[in-house]
Amino acid sequence: MKIVWWRKNPYLGAVVLVWIAVFAIVGLAMLREPHTTGERTPKAAVKATVKKAEQAANPFASLRIQRERRRDEQIELLKEAGKTEEVAKLAEQKRLEGELEGVLKAMGFPEAVVLIGSEEAAAVVAAVLTQTEVARIGDVVARKTGFPLEKITISEGSQLPNKGKSQ
């Protein structure tokens, strides 16, 4: 004769089942979360990542990080001041910079940084550029930003590690 203990005492069986479920949920949650020794806030994690990237040898990554940090600080100050129109402008500039950097990568310049201001734009490319390439980059930046070519600066990052196109 087989005795099944949870049939004799259903409350005990329910308690055991609940404990098993709780341990399973807690165990799965612990597997998903990273285990750290200290308390890390999102800002601390971002600062640690920024510091690592700045220490990297890539000046383009460093320039992008500085641009993002400055832009985020500006957005935060404008949000505190309640200037939503200016925040929207900065967000649009940020979106355009990323889009133009993607276009430049597609054009064959994997290392490029685009900086857009309120009235002018600048593109820095890690390559020695021909006049044709400068014209193509200027045309793309002018079309995307709406700025005239006189307000667009295109610089060669030839003193930087040459990872882009070169001729």
The total strand number stands at 3
Helical region count? Answer: 6
Net shape = elongated
Going across the biggest sheet, name each strand in turn. 1-2-3
What does this molecule look like?
With 167 residues, the protein is mainly α. The protein is built from 6 helices and 3 strands; from the N terminus they run H-H-H-H-H-E-E-H-E. Helix 5 (84-106) packs antiparallel against helix 6. The longest helix has 23 residues, at 10-32. The radius of gyration is 27 Å and the shape is elongated. Mean pLDDT is 77; it is low at 159-167.
SSE layout and pairings?
Elements (H helix, E strand, L loop, with lengths): L4 H4 L1 H23 L9 H14 L3 H23 L2 H23 L5 E5 L4 E5 L5 H15 L6 E5 L11
Parallel strand pairs: 2-3
Antiparallel strand pairs: 1-2
Helix pairs in contact: 3-4, 4-5, 5-6
